[in-house]
Specification:
InterPro entries: MATE_fam, MATE_MdtK, MdtK-like. The protein has 466 residues and is an all-alpha fold. It is built from 18 helices and no strands. The two termini are 34 Å apart.
């Protein structure tokens, strides 16, 4: 059974048209993976809510900070999927193996650069978020523990990307399940005192994250070696790395820029929410709880994003540009249809879900408000996520960079301040701005996919990086 799940001997047949069945078979395990990924954050929020609304607010703040810290790992992961999947499509297996080694090596280097900066400037960073004096001690403690997990987090992100590029999609599923189980046990056991264990409160949530991520990273590293995806041939000569590095960087830099501006934009949005004229802490706690539930809706859409990146890379590696576009439209239609239908059902359960994740009545109302705006945005958010993945698989990350950055910095943030602080003067103004920005972003991405020459960013097979 394990051999079946860890099979990496996947080949791409350029003469076979990819249908909905093949797309779904690759996507479904990744949907399960995203459900467990959602469960990790959901457990943190639920346990934090049982401790206090303040701890719940801290979880939201530190989680966004954590996303900023791993932005380089995410960018390298996107570049790795593009380069490896294109190499597999071109049937250049040695190139794929070497890109694996190069990606992991770059991840280690950048992690060692990011870590000391995050340690030195931690207070400055938290001050920029307008963290209140009441929340500051707990926030700093969480931040410091999360920093300890950063190297393992980098390895986890990059190794999962390698497995996906080889279509070994069950491996990230198994890894995420392991992380989920360990995190849930430690959260509930040492956070709330379940299973007859001592309750340590908020600190247990942070340490649970550290231990579970480390366990997942170790498992992935062992599997990389066992499956010979990381071996002596992965460490290429300086000459090869010098020739291959420009493409990896060309794809990674716009992706990193997009992720960085997107995540910083979210931090600014948190700052806008924290500085609302009234009930700012309640709004922040409700937004934090709502973001976790929202991820239940949008995390499966990420599976279509990931599938699209791999299949587009395969098609372009084989020189099949028209097939790449057809496959992309199939994934877009399947993903938007599936997730919008689920969102329509979820709408009727918003009060029940909000009451579960936010027991405090005031926080529950803000959580309901947040969820309703975001459920309305489902078709637009899902379309943006899938189209971003399709363009990323082609190496055309510069296009999502433009579209996503414009939507958040020129639409979402100015509108959030105007509606939240000047016109409506409450959290609804912030949530309304999020809806409008998603409509703008999805429209831009769709225009790019339909009318721009994004296939030109793919590598050519058989060049000097073979």
């Amino acid at each position: 059974m394990l051999k079946k799940f860890t099979n990496t001997k996947t080949t791409f047949n350029p003469n076979q048209e990819l249908g909905l069945k093949q797309i779904w078979n690759l996507t479904f395990p990744q949907i399960l993976m995203t459900i467990f990924h959602f469960g990790i954050g959901f457990t943190d929020v639920v346990v934090a809510g049982r401790i206090s609304p303040d701890v719940q607010a801290v979880i939201g703040i530190v989680t966004q900070c954590q996303f900023v810290l791993i932005v380089i790992a995410t960018a390298l992961a996107n570049a790795s999927v593009a380069s490896i999947s294109q190499a597999i499509g071109a049937r250049l297996n040695l190139r794929a193996i070497r890109y694996t080694g190069l990606s992991l090596g770059l991840g280690l280097v950048f992690c060692l650069l990011v870590l000391p900066v995050a340690i030195i400037f931690q207070q400055t960073f938290l001050n920029l978020l307008h963290v209140s004096d009441q929340l500051m001690p707990t926030t700093k403690n969480f931040w410091q523990i999360y920093l300890l997990a950063l190297p393992a987090h980098y390895l986890l992100v990059l190794s999962n990307a390698v497995f996906r590029a080889y279509k070994a999609v069950y491996l990230p599923l198994i890894t995420t399940f392991i992380v989920f189980l360990i995190n849930a046990f430690l959260d509930l056991g040492f956070g709330l005192g379940w299973f007859g264990l001592p309750a340590f409160g908020a600190n247990a949530i942070a340490w649970a994250s550290l231990i579970s991520v480390f366990a997942g990273a170790v498992f992935n590293f062992v599997m990389l070696i066992k499956l010979q995806l990381f071996k002596s041939e992965s460490i290429a000569s300086w000459r090869w790395n010098k020739a291959a590095l420009p493409y990896l960087i060309k794809v990674a830099i716009p992706s990193a820029g997009m992720q960085l501006l997107w995540q910083i934009g979210y931090l600014v949005l948190i700052g806008i929410t924290n500085a609302l004229p009234k009930n700012s802490e309640t709004a922040m706690a409700g937004m934090t709880a709502g973001m976790r539930v929202e991820s239940m809706l949008f995390m499966p859409a990420l599976a279509f994003n990931l599938t699209g990146a791999v299949l587009i890379g395969n098609c372009l590696g084989a020189g099949k540009k028209l097939e790449a576009k057809r496959v992309g439209l199939k994934i877009l239609g399947l993903g938007c249809g599936t997730m919008s239908s689920f969102a329509a059902i979820l709408w009727f359960f918003v009060p029940t879900i909000a009451a579960f994740v936010a027991p405090d009545p005031a926080v529950m109302q803000e959580c309901m408000n947040y969820l309703k705006f975001n459920i309305l945005s489902t078709p637009f958010t899902v379309a943006s996520m899938i189209l971003t993945g399709l363009l990323s698989g082609a190496g055309a990350t510069i296009y999502p960079f433009y579209a996503n950055s414009f939507s958040i910095w020129c639409v979402r943030l100015p509108l959030a301040y105007i509606m939240g602080h000047i016109i409506w003067k409450n959290a609804s103004g912030v949530f309304f701005a999020m809806l409008i920005s998603q409509m703008v972003q999805s429209s831009l991405c769709l225009y790019i996919f339909l009318f721009k020459n994004w296939t030109r960013f793919a590598q050519r097979g058989g060049n000097k990086t073979t």
